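# step 3/5: fold
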Amino acid sequence: MPPPNRNLWYFILLASLISFQANAEVFIWTDDQGQAHFSDTPPDNAPYRGMPTPDLKNTPLLLPEQRSRPSPRSATTRKTNTSVAPTTRNPRCQNYEQRLERVQLQLRNGYREPRGNRLRHERRELKSKLWNDC
């Protein structure tokens, strides 16, 4: 049988000493000037009283409230949102969408780095124009 781990015994001793300190009694006394003092050791020359330690109760773990998933939209709602025909849209917006789709396709197909930075910059600008103008 291997010898017991010395560090484990040190840890157990340290944990027990800490738990004794956590359960220490608190003493309250008042000095000649009327100032209240709190200490873990009783005073030598003054009357004191012990402060009762509160009973620590196990409280249940509080978890954040679970957000409910939004209900899926019905098919009729989806149809009304997408019922705008592309021909009735602003031609400038159609141009932005086509250019944005072309840039997205180029980014998905792969690129070398200097070109990638330019494409990402162009994508940001096109999205901004779509958002602001359309």
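# step 4/5: annotate
The longest strand covers residues 26-30.
# step 5/5: archive (pending)
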